[in-house]
Specification:
This protein is an alpha/beta fold. It is globular, with a radius of gyration of 20 Å. The chain has a seven-stranded parallel beta sheet, with helices on both faces. Strands 2-3-4 form a three-stranded antiparallel beta sheet, with no helix packed on it. It is built from 13 helices and ten strands. The protein has helices at about 5-15, 35-40, 85-90, 95, 100-110, 130-135, 140-150, 150-175, 195-215, 235-240, 255-260, 280-295, 320-335, and strands spanning about 30, 50, 60, 70, 120-125, 180-185, 220-225, 245, 265-270, 300-305. α6 (about 130-135) packs across α7 (about 140-150) and α7 packs across α8 (about 150-175). It is about 45% helix and about 15% strand.
């Protein structure tokens, strides 16, 4: 008997688990993207339009781009002066706007159709604490203010952290998902955006209550950070993160696997440089095979592109990536 995708995933992320094959990217999870909080916070993003989100940040989605992105300039930044952030920043009231049981019905109906012995119901939380900061004031101000005005930045981080905690509570209490994928990119390809000490002082504390609530309710935490987070992996374990999703190959993944010894699973490792127009099938297969060969033997590893939701940007790559992981899995598990 083969394990269902759900149970194979659970075995893969468990210390000393016994998966019977490689988990193929997000195959074990079904993302539900129609909950009221998602609609309230991101529902007005439209390709070809520039809109404002609930915090007042300008969100641009040009016709020729695949995603909407914050567009923060000197003239339109929500918070031009961190020392007076309370004057400028109004935290959206999720509880007031997303607590009508009727609004949750479509998402709950979608979840009810999923065979929960076979798959895991996954809720999505975009725009983490650090990301929200740079949405409010731009990247440069964020990094400067972390150094120059840490007290005010901590207060703002706490306000965002409380908002994210309310988001967590609404999702957990209404949706009762098996998994939550929670986004916050903490670094570039080869470094953290701030020193580990600054991250520990300002960003990390905001996740204690949030991830604690998920843990108390048996929710699996996938933390998405397609970043270099090697210096803070022990902190990520401490926060209760079950899977670091988006782990870039610029991290020393085999070294991290040895260090973690099953205390946190890793998902990612396939370099997104292959996800581009005109790439050859051979190049895609070579990169997927490299990631599987180098990382799967270290255990507690799920090969995937490093994005925070399923699928390549260039959709024609998806079947190739899927097939190459299947081939590797068959070869290794049927030895």
């Amino acid at each position: 008997f083969m394990l269902t995708p759900k149970y194979n995933f659970l075995e893969t992320i468990k210390k000393n688990g016994n998966p019977d094959r490689v988990v193929n990217q997000y195959e074990a999870t079904v993302p539900i993207m129609i909950d009221p909080v998602q609609k309230y916070t991101r529902g007005n993003r439209v390709k070809g339009k520039t809109t404002k989100d609930r915090w007042g940040t300008e969100i641009a989605w040009p016709e020729d781009q695949m995603f909407a992105m914050p567009h923060v300039t000197e003239d339109n930044k929500v918070c031009p002066d961190i020392t007076e952030w309370r004057k400028y920043v109004t935290v959206p009231d999720l509880v007031a706007n997303c607590s009508n049981p009727a609004d949750w019905e479509p998402a709950l109906e979608a979840a009810a159709k999923i065979d929960r012995e076979d798959k895991l119901v996954m809720s999505f939380m975009g725009t983490g604490v650090f990301e929200e900061m740079h949405h409010l004031m731009g990247f440069e101000d964020t990094l400067m203010n972390l150094l120059l005005e840490p007290d005010d930045m901590l207060e703002l981080a706490e306000a965002i952290g409380e908002y994210r905690f309310q988001y967590t509570k609404l999702l957990v209490d209404y949706m009762k998902p098996d998994v939550i994928i929670s986004h916050d990119d903490w670094g570039s390809k080869d470094n953290l955006f701030m020193s580990p000490e600054v991250w520990r002082e300002i960003i990390k504390p905001q996740y204690v209550k949030m991830y604690g609530y998920m843990k108390e309710h048996g929710v699996i935490i996938l933390h998405h950070a397609d970043s270099y987070c090697e210096p803070i992996v022990e902190d990520m374990v401490e926060l209760g993160i079950d899977v670091w999703q988006g782990v870039l190959p610029t991290n020393d993944i085999p070294k991290i696997q040895k260090q973690l010894n099953g205390r946190m699973a890793l998902m990612g490792g396939i370099d997104s440089v292959i996800d581009r127009a005109g790439v050859s099938e051979e190049e895609v297969r070579t990169e997927v095979r490299r990631a599987c060969r180098e990382y799967v033997p270290g255990g507690n590893f799920i090969p995937s592109l490093t994005y925070g939701l399923p699928g390549a940007l260039f959709k024609e790559l998806d079947p190739i990536i899927y097939d190459e992981i299947q081939k590797y899995s068959k070869e290794e598990f049927e030895k």
